[in-house]
Amino acid sequence: MVEDEVDDSEVDQWEEFPVVLQQKSMEYSIKSKRSSRARYSYGIIFLITNLIAWFVRDYGERVLPVLQYSKACGDEGSECSHTMGVLRVSLGCFIFFLVMFLTTCFTSKLYDVRNVWHSGWWILKFLMLITFAVIPFFVPSDYVQLYGEFARVGAGVFLILQLVSVIEFITWWNNYWMPDERKKQSSCSLGLFMSTVCYIASICGIVMMYVLYASKTSCILNIFFISWTAILLVVMMAVSLHSKVNRGLLSSGIMASYVVFLCWSAIRSEPATQKCSPQQQNSGHGGWTTVLGFLIGICAIVMATFSTGIDSQTFQFRKDRVQSEDDVPYKYGFFHLVFSLGAMYFAMLFISWNLDGLPRKWSIDVGWASTWVKIVNEWFAATIYLWKLILPVVRQTKVMDHEETEEELDSTSSV
């Protein structure tokens, strides 16, 4: 009788076991969706911070008289507007995401308490954000200037992370359209079509830049920038089609379009002159094209930060790890770290990488410093891409040389 009761209890436990698993699976699914939605909330916070930085830069001295009562802001609040105002807003944003990074780093499971902190507690985090946004306006200007020097380095690190993320995406996109056995003809045709479109767009971009920004022989610097970009296009295509690399035209075509875009963006960041640019110095201060370009620039900053932040898979050392049901959908620590670096990046764009200058209203990332940063960024992007193409060949050559050396040693020892 007792044995029958024991058997019945075991049967009941086995029957309840799938129900418990299903409940846990649903719970993990809800937490994962909540975590995925949370990243959009952080993206909105970052967007609002960008808009606040712009407002403080262009209108803070006139619209926010309360800044005059802070000793750190100096006379008439001049130390809390323009360049210094952007740095103070950026500092508050940086501290907020740095705290989020420190409190969510190494979170790996959905049932971790830190997952709840990342995905919830929004009222507390909102109060924390306001506190961190206000504190920098009471910090002496010398310390804010020091943060500006540090922000240059952080913005450079952000650009490197963004480049690696973009190149990894291009590699994935190329592999996605590589011909397979089942759909060899269709995928090959689509890949060839897309590579053709990318190269046509790149060539048109080169020609248009010559016409618009290098129409006169006196524009030597622009001619050099555009010509070197064209050379990079040819080199990337040649290396990609080399028999030992054999990566096709798609990845090099997409990369060519990206490099041409970086060159165009760099030349557009030059101070407007009548001899090398169709833009006039006295135009674009309040026109709708300037406003639209400014808003697009802000959205581009947010999208670049967001896309790099959720791309933690690219920067993992072990990429063969299987995703479990209770794993977090993305790495919270890396996500917040990228946003903290993004805070430094948008500060540099708003002040055109110049800590001592006076940025123009409704402008973003304009000046010779911005131009050279983007040009170096372009060259660095091409270098990383070429290295990723050559690296497998170098590794294979080393392995073959090592095997040949071992065979020679074996043969000599046998003799």
Automatic annotation (TrEMBL):
Similarity comment: family membership: Belongs to the TDE1 family.
Query: Which domain of life, per UniProt?
Result: Eukaryota
Record's keyword terms, sorted = Membrane, Transmembrane, Transmembrane helix
Q: Name one GO cellular component term.
A: membrane
* Taxonomic placement: Eukaryota, Viridiplantae, Streptophyta, Embryophyta, Tracheophyta
Q: Where in the cell is it found?
A: Membrane
Protein name, UniProt field: Serine incorporator
- How is the protein disposed in the membrane? Multi-pass membrane protein
Transmembrane stretches in the record are 40-57, 86-107, 119-138, 150-170, 190-214, 220-241, 248-267, 287-311, 332-355, 375-394
